[in-house]
Amino acid sequence: YLGVMPAYSAADDALTTKLVTFYEHLKDSSVPSHQATVLLFDPSNGTLKAVLDGSVITAKRTAAVSAIATKLLMPAFAEVLCILGAGVQAYSHYDIFTELFTFKEVRIWNRTREKALKFAGSVPGPVRVCSSAREAVTGADVIVTVTMATAPILCGDWVKPGAHINAIGASRPDWRELDDELMKNSVLFVDSRDAALTESGDVILSGAEIFAELGEVLKGTKPALPEKTTVFKSLGMAVEDTVAAKFVYDAWSAGN
């Protein structure tokens, strides 16, 4: 799969296109499933200004958006973080979540236990490796799903009432990470309504109603409802890559 994600931000005076490849590896591979490159152009004349590592930008900006959603939607006293999946996005989410929030416990589960053990051994803080997804999510206040699942791996009856879920995987209309019970009994937030209704199997196949876009919460036109069980379905938006790429380019330029 080859995706092309162009975007322009007038506020940032930035024009970019991200090229992203996605390969579902049938066997565990050292090559990431997603690889990307961001091209940054001068919006005044179309000149190519920079070629940036889009894989790093994608990992960082996705986790940053999840962190914003979590700050707005998580319960007031969140003590347990659970991550389902142990790939690139698991690491980027762990990094920013442990930097911004204070959790008493971090848990991880992965389909391949060896990868979960490797993750736990390579991050700076203590992580509890769980033998099942159910064990990992039971009692968790914040849950992050960053898997390659095509069928639900997170069930609503496992989830603590009032928990917040960041659903990052299952970016195809026929793929799922979350079951119908969780989707229908949670308040659903998305990054883009249009994208969620055409790309997200969790949203399309469950028939769950979208309550708000994250941007509407940030603007104050929709409430956050952190006292409810909430799901943020993240598919990623090209403008996030644009803002991130311009930030990186400006920081590099200042250093030169």
From TrEMBL:
This is Ketimine reductase mu-crystallin. InterPro entries: NAD(P)-bd_dom_sf, ODC_Mu_crystall, ODC_N. GO terms for cellular component: cytoplasm. It comes from the Eukaryota. GO terms for biological process: thyroid hormone metabolic process. Its EC number is 1.5.1.1, 1.5.1.25. Homodimer. Binds the thyroid hormone triiodothyronine (T3); T3 binding inhibits enzymatic activity. One of its GO terms (molecular function) is thiomorpholine-carboxylate dehydrogenase activity.
